[in-house]
Design brief:
Length: 326
């Protein structure tokens, strides 16, 4: 077993040699650009870690790790287009640095490269990995569509929101873990519990991400500060404010989220909405929900048929993730 940083270094080395730089360079340069922006690499790290825990063979899981990370960055590239996002990891998004057409086509090529990575496996293992990966990919697309729908939908329940982030974000975390365990030879019970651990942890991660969008340090967050408020995204903060607020507070919040505000008035909107989040207790309620899902994820580790030391590894990863130590 190696350290989490060592898994990351191993993966980064493999990633550098994966994507072509051949002609046309206008297709591949944007791909290498977004992959080179870095990031936590939490999904490929989880794939390598689970492959080691269940089969002591993380090197065999490199191609699966590449598949999940390339696919993840493809979704980010297209997500940025849909959100008109100017920044990704603190730098210009692909559609801003080049143009929308380039971002669409390079993104499409990335998804194909993700599937090509899985072709390094054979027989029943390939079929299992491909089936899991394809189901996850369509789930992510469903989640993204729900996210888009919610921007213009007048009523969105908290349950609908949680299902959206489960599909859009959390299932890929579960998939990453399960793919590694499949390669390592984990049994069906372990595969299910590990997948559930990943989905719960991914849900906690996304709720925290929504919180940090409004309350994180703009210099370290890496994306447009308060982008969710600007784009009228009804995140968990919005739902908790609507659940706990007075009639006056809920009316004010609804009004702020019913208009697209541009220019110098954006700062006023951000400040007003954050004040409502604070006054209604939405900010604290959201942090409590992060803890709830994190603890539920850790509870899933109890039923895994692995050593206590390996359970601690998974839990340590989860703690580091929630504390943004990647």
């Amino acid at each position: 077993m190696i350290t989490l940083n060592a898994y990351k270094e191993t993966f980064e080395s493999a990633l550098k040699n994966t994507i072509s730089t051949s002609a046309p360079k206008t297709l591949y340069i944007p791909i290498n650009y977004i992959l080179g922006l870095g990031g936590k690499r939490l999904r490929p790290i989880l794939t390598l870690l689970s492959a080691d825990i269940f089969g002591n063979n993380h090197s065999k899981a490199i191609y699966a790790a590449l598949a999940v990370e390339i696919f993840h960055n493809f979704t980010l590239m297209h997500d940025d287009i849909m959100d008109s996002a100017p920044l990704r990891r603190g730098l210009a998004t692909v559609h801003k640095k080049w143009n929308v057409n380039t971002a669409i086509l390079s993104g499409d090529a990335m998804m194909i490269h993700a599937y090509l990575a899985l072709e390094n496996y054979e027989g029943s293992l390939y079929r299992k990995l491909n089936r899991l990966f394809s189901k996850t990919a369509i789930d992510v697309c469903k989640g993204q569509q729900y996210d888009l729908d919610f921007e213009t939908k007048s009523e969105v329940s908290e349950a609908e929101y949680l299902e959206m982030i489960r599909l859009k974000t959390a299932v890929l975390v579960g998939c990453s873990l399960k793919m590694g365990a499949l390669i390592g030879g984990g049994n069906d019970t372990n595969l299910k519990d590990l997948y559930d651990f990943g989905v719960l942890l991914g849900t906690a991660f996304q709720i925290q991400d929504d919180y940090l969008d409004a309350y994180g340090n703009p210099e370290s967050f890496g994306k447009q500060f308060a982008g969710d408020i600007i784009e009228n995204k009804k995140t968990i903060l919005y739902h908790k404010a609507m659940e706990n607020g007075s009639s006056k507070e809920k009316t004010a919040l609804t009004q702020w989220f019913s208009n697209q505000i541009k220019g110098k008035d954006v700062a006023d909107k951000i400040n007003a909405v954050k004040l409502l989040f604070d006054k209604t207790g939405a900010s604290e309620s959201s942090k409590a929900l992060v803890s709830k899902y994190t603890e539920a994820a850790f509870k899933k580790l109890d039923s895994l048929d692995i050593s206590i030391e390996n359970k601690v590894l998974f839990k340590t990863f989860g703690i580091n993730l929630m504390e943004r130590k990647f």
